[in-house]
Amino acid sequence: RLVYVLNGPNLNLLGKRQPHIYGHETLADVEAECRKVADELRLDIQFHQSNREYEIIDWVHEAREVAGGIAINPAAFTHTSVAILDALNTFEGPVIEIHISNVHKREAFRHHSFVSTRADGVIAGFGTQGYTLALRRLARLIDEKTS
Ligand code: DQA
């Protein structure tokens, strides 16, 4: 019951970056909250952030070997990256896409997501709470798959 939680570019600045859009919590706060909920759900998590597309792709490849699910906030790569989509399409378990903000309320270029064509579910506009909601959904989907 291992889940990868992957974060794309600029999310290292969470808490400092446009707090009126993304809130005041840092990515470390989000990770701590995820670990708390993961314990409750009896999930192990690998939590990563990178500003580099290839690192996210490499983590998806790693997840193929060891993980039952992926929660991913691809950040700006959501709207640009066929490569991350292709990587996720090689992963057999459930994938939940997370956006802290409601991307549909924002600029038109944020309305299209390459990743959504693969994701089993999409969470947007729930703030950083979206991460723990994604973990709850992944735990359920993993249980359903193995029961
Ligand atoms: C984001 C939304 C994206 O459009 C943006 O590029 C991000 C963060 C979100 O979490 O709301 O960096 O994925």
For CATH, the homologous superfamily is named as: Dehydroquinase, class II
Q: Please estimate the helix content.
A: 25-40%
First CA to last CA: what distance? Answer: 13 Å
User: Could you say how many structural domains there are in total?
Assistant: 1
The percentage of residues in β strands lies in: 15-25%
The H/E string reads EHHEHEHEEH
Low-confidence stretches: none
Strand order, largest beta sheet: 2-1-3-4-5
CATH class: Alpha Beta
CATH-defined architecture: 3-Layer(aba) Sandwich
What about the largest sheet? Answer: 5 strands, parallel
CATH topology: Rossmann fold
Q: What is the SS-derived class?
A: alpha/beta
Pathway: Metabolic intermediate biosynthesis; chorismate biosynthesis; chorismate from D-erythrose 4-phosphate and phosphoenolpyruvate: step 3/7
Active site: 22, 99
Subunit structure: Homododecamer.
Site (Transition state stabilizer): 17
